[in-house]
Amino acid sequence: SSRSDYKLGQTARSPSHMIGIEGLSPEQATGVVNSLSKHDFAFVKRSDGSFTYAVLAFRSVEDESWSNFDNDDDQSESRKEDCMTFVLSNLGTSKL
User: Fold this and answer.
1) Is the pLDDT of residue 87 over 70?
2) Torsions phi, psi of 80, nearest 5?
3) Closest CA to 55 of 91, 85, 11, 21
4) Largest distance between two CA atoms of the chain
5) What is the DSSP string of 21-88?
6) Tens of pLDDT along 6-60?
7) Chain-centre distance for alpha carbon 24
8) Could you tell me which of 6, 13, 22, 16 has the C-alpha nearest to residue 55?
């Protein structure tokens, strides 16, 4: 669902406008995030610490690779990671 008092890309005006996950267990926080469906709106945290009103465009599964320095063979490993892509503006700016 969406909020009529926000437009795509606007910065949150009050913490009370958002559902926070602080204080939730990891399982509870995961449940809140997993409840989002395609085209649902959410406030997305930006690199400057602010929150922007955005829409969930799609979910995907990506490969996440890293080097395993604990392994004597110094091999790279990978695993699948669930990702969500949000559109942050009418110009199509997005955040994974």
Assistant:
1) yes
2) -85, 145
3) 85
4) 56
5) -TTS-HHHHHHHHHT--TT-EEEEE-TTS-EEEEEEEEEEEEEEEEE-TTSTT--EEEEEEEEEEEE-
6) 999 999 999 889 888 788 899 998 898 899 999 999 999 889 999 999 999 999 8
7) 16
8) 6
